[in-house]
Inverse folding.
């Protein structure tokens, strides 16, 4: 790592694609010469084509957090303790009634269904361009950052939420194989690495925006997507959705939301 790069500079480049500070610039140019339809936007490591298997063995395959950058860049990023603020959209998907669900099966069975939920939801979120935050108990978080998910990251998050509910059986005649409620909210948040250089670090999102998205997912019934009024309006949706006013825990003022239950593409 270059000593003259601050954590804020690194994360600003990582999140916006501007002023990329790559310690191995020669590799970046060399990787660009290898043909590939998909590659790390940070170091240019190819993710497909004839060179992909070799590149993956070098630790530069797609990251578990995002298909837009490689595992090596993720590891390097985690060494920059700190981050920066950015406008983004958050998707929180929460298993409804997980306590009752766990009570009705043995621990191994519950572990299997949660693992299936994580695998299915991670695949959908990664395909949508989101960063996938770690599985927290029975909840998964998708970070829709404009540079990775596109300018209309609000709509990308809403489409991903609908795909996630469809994939878990909501709207099907047999019902869901795992009941989920989803919250979608946009705003400014801190994204970066937390921890310390002598202990484990984690790439995560912090602030009022993720807290609000988490509260929305907790308020959503199975099969519901709770959209904050801001996310709904900015996304450009024209659907005539049910509107509610919620008293969310920890929020000083009631919050307006639109409730999406139509999961059609």
């Amino acid at each position: 790592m270059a000593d003259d790069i601050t954590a804020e500079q690194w994360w600003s480049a990582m999140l916006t694609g501007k002023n990329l500070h790559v310690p191995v610039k020669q590799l970046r140019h060399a990787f660009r010469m290898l043909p590939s339809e998909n590659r790390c936007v940070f170091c240019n490591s190819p993710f497909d084509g004839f060179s992909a298997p070799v590149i993956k063995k070098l630790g530069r395959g797609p990251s578990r957090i995002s298909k837009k950058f490689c595992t090596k860049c993720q590891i390097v990023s985690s060494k920059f303790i700190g981050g920066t603020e950015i406008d983004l959209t958050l998707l929180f998907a929460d298993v409804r009634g997980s306590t009752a669900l766990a009570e009705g099966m043995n621990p191994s069975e519950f572990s299997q269904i949660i693992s299936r939920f994580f695998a299915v939801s991670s695949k959908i979120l990664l395909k949508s361009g989101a960063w996938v935050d770690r599985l927290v108990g029975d909840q998964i978080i998708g970070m829709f950052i404009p540079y990775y998910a596109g300018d209309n990251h609000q709509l990308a998050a809403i489409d991903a939420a609908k795909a996630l509910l469809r994939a878990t059986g909501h709207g099907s005649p047999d019902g869901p194989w795992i009941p989920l409620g989803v919250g979608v909210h946009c705003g400014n948040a801190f994204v970066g690495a937390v921890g310390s250089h002598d202990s484990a670090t984690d790439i995560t999102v912090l602030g009022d925006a993720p807290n609000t998205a988490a509260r929305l997912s907790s308020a959503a019934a199975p099969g519901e997507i709770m959209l904050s009024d801001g996310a709904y309006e900015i996304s450009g949706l024209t659907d005539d959705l049910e509107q509610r006013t919620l008293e969310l825990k920890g929020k000083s003022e009631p919050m307006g939301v639109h409730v999406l239950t139509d999961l059609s593409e």
Summary: The chain has two domains: 7-80, 83-260.
